[in-house]
């Protein structure tokens, strides 16, 4: 067995105990309205802090959780946390913040995903329009059943967004058929959009296409003022990235809501 396998088995072992042990936390990164500068939402992002291994990146443990099915309990826990947090913010007066939660392909393919979402919304008393589910293009393995599930989720009143847009396959064919609310432009296109003419064209084209399809567009990974100005000029709707704030614990998000750089 090579080291890669060994370490992923260790990681899997550790991950199994992480949820029950309170090692997982949900952090939040604001989504900012590009025209007004208001924080209009926040993306829930998992953080794992292991007692001896230290902090482990979701890029390392989400794929293992996905492969092994552990993503199902972890994902449900995350969704419940995020909805409860959004409901608490609502009670505190932030009643228009939309919380977005990443839904993995495996979770999406679960027969009872719609029931799970519905019961968590009822349990936490969060109005469905304050929840957005981020899916990726990899749910399109079985297009017809994906459309059926998305339609049922839409009927609950939650919003659906496509994450990492532009990085997968078959992006365009299903855009028309999926009941989507938002496209999130992948950060790999944003990174060079002020320097690389091809990336600039891609970003502009995605924004224009999304608007023609009546979708909202979010740019992720916005790190510089120049990128923000570019996105403003091309009428992107929302931005998310280190320029505004890194993902932070929920207490910090609210403390800093007023202090984010003005647009
Ligand atoms: P993602 O959904 O595309 O999330 C955005 C990632 O970009 C986050 O990485 C975030 O911290 C990072 N990011 C935000 N702003 C910037 C920026 O300005 N520059 C750069 N370079 N990066 C930025 P993170 O938190 O490490 O998460 C990585 C991935 O792990 C996520 O990518 C998502 O695919 C997955 N993930 C995280 N939490 C969850 C979860 O609760 N459920 C599922 N299924 N996946 C999750
Ligand atoms: Ca995401
Ligand atoms: Ca993304
Ligand atoms: Ca991603």
From TrEMBL:
Q: Where are the transmembrane segments?
A: none
State the source organism's domain of life. Answer: Bacteria
EAL domain: residues covered: 8-261
Q: Please give the name of this protein.
A: EAL domain-containing protein
User: Species name for this entry?
Assistant: Paenibacillus antri
């Amino acid at each position: 067995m090579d080291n890669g396998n060994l370490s992923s088995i260790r990681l899997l072992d550790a991950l199994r105990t992480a949820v029950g042990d309170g090692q997982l936390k949900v952090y939040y990164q604001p989504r900012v309205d590009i025209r007004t500068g208001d924080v209009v939402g926040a993306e829930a992002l998992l953080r794992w802090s292991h007692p001896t291994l230290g902090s482990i990146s979701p890029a390392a443990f989400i794929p293992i959780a996905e492969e092994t099915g552990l993503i199902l309990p972890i994902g449900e826990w995350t969704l419940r946390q995020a909805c409860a947090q959004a409901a608490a913010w609502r009670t505190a007066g932030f009643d228009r913040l939309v919380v977005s939660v990443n839904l993995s392909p495996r979770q999406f393919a679960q027969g009872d995903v719609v029931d799970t979402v519905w019961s968590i919304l009822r349990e936490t008393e969060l109005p469905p329009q304050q929840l957005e589910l981020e899916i990726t293009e990899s749910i399109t393995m079985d297009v017809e059943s994906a459309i059926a599930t998305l339609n049922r989720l839409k009927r609950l009143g939650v919003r659906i967004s496509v994450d990492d847009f532009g990085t997968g396959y078959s992006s365009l064919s299903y855009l028309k058929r999926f009941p989507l609310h938002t496209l999130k432009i992948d950060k790999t296109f944003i990174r060079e959009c002020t320097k690389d003419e091809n990336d600039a064209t891609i970003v502009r084209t995605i924004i224009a296409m999304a608007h023609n399809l009546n979708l909202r567009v979010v740019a992720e990974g916005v790190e510089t003022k120049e990128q923000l100005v570019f996105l403003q000029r091309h009428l992107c709707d929302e931005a998310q990235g280190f320029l505004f704030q890194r993902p932070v614990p929920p207490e910090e998000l609210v403390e800093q809501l007023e202090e984010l750089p003005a647009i």
